[in-house]
Design goal:
The complex is a heterodimer. Chain A is an all-beta fold. Chain A contains no helices and 12 strands. Chain B is built from no helices and 11 strands. The chains are: A mainly beta, B mainly beta.
């Protein structure tokens, strides 16, 4: 079956530090990959996505590259801010069937001033 | 833009009591709708999905049921809650007007504690 594995949190960083949140996946077929973010008290929001191998998704200074050879989609940001504190979910969807997202367990990021 | 209203945000229920969680959709019609659950330390697990009124597919055997009485209304129910039903429940939707659209929009979730 399909699955997504994320690094466990919480991840605690100082402001302006470099961020990496690891995500790997297994899937039958060729999935699209996503990062969703949930800020405190808010619903999940799409952060970025990539639909095919070697695509790079980017948004708000975050980036992730679809690596088919390593089945990975690691999230990176060069300089985090306190406002980036949230829970980050890696997810995949196959372009067939019910097209429901398969999520990782989420990684909580805490950025300290 | 599409939005999902989901309530309540938190709920504490005794074992054996019934459950009804509701979400309503604004901003689109005929969406695909999904109920997810996140148990402690685990990912979001798909429980049910619906492609239209009265059409419900269950992903995992469980103590819960879902119904879609109206196009923009999706309800998660239980007749008797179990301790293992505790978790974070999330309603999600997908706009089907764009056939290649993979993006989901989400409600804010309900944290259910069964005691």
């Amino acid at each position: 079956g399909n699955s997504v594995t994320q690094m466990e949190g919480p991840v605690t960083l100082s402001e302006e530090a470099f961020l990496t949140i690891n995500c790997t996946y297994t899937a039958t077929g060729y999935p699209s990959l996503f990062w969703y973010v949930q800020y405190p008290g808010e619903g999940l929001q799409l952060l970025l996505k990539a639909t095919k191998a070697d695509d790079k998704g980017s948004n708000k200074g975050f980036e992730a590259t679809y690596r088919k050879e390593t089945t990975s989609f690691h999230l990176e940001k060069g300089s985090v801010q306190v406002s980036d504190s949230a829970v980050y979910f890696c997810a995949l969807v196959l372009d067939t069937g019910r097209r429901a997202l398969t999520f990782g367990s989420g990684t909580r990021l805490q950025v300290q001033p | 833009s599409q939005t999902i209203h989901q309530w309540p945000a938190t709920l504490v229920q005794p074992v054996g009591s019934p459950l009804s969680l509701e979400c309503t959709v604004e901003g689109t019609s005929n969406p695909n709708l999904y109920w997810y659950r996140q148990a402690a330390g685990r990912g979001l697990q798909l429980l049910f999905y619906s492609v239209g009124i009265g059409q419900i597919s269950s992903e995992v055997p469980q103590n819960l049921s879902a119904s879609r009485p109206q196009d923009r209304q999706f309800i998660l129910s239980s007749k008797k809650l179990l301790l293992s039903d505790s978790g974070f429940y999330l309603c999600a939707g997908r706009d089907t007007k764009i056939s290649t659209n993979e993006k989901l929009f989400f409600g804010s979730g309900t944290q259910l504690s069964v005691l």
